[in-house]
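Thought: the user asked what Chaperonin Cpn10 looks like in 3D. I have the sequence; next I should run the structure tool and report back without guessing.
Action: structure_tool
Action Input:
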Amino acid sequence: MASQTTFKTIKAVIPLLDRVLVQRFKAETKTATGIFLPSSTTSSPLPEATVIAVGPGAPNKDGKVIPTAVKPGDRVLLPGWGGNSIKVGEDEYHLFKDAEILAKIQE
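Observation:
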């Protein structure tokens, strides 16, 4: 369940430590030939997302800040679980720890 927010734009959210704010890709509801897909096939979230914002990084045991491995604009592969949902208007975003992101997609 996504938490409803009181701010008007997602740009107001700045992740802390090693958190990464992402927006999942939406499943296509229509094929290239114009056939509409049933909602049961498009209800599960896609594992890909775009990074919106990142935190400065988390400190290691020595106190040195380790920066996040991704940057805004990157396409990433997400696990099927985890993350915290944030809903702004009709759009839904998710906060993940940097270590929870599975891979960066380079195309």
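Thought: the tool returned a structure. Summarizing for the user.
Final Answer: Structure for Chaperonin Cpn10 predicted. The mean pLDDT is 80. The beta strands are 3-4, 19-24, 48-54, 58-59, 65-66, 75-77, 84-88, 91-97, 103-105.
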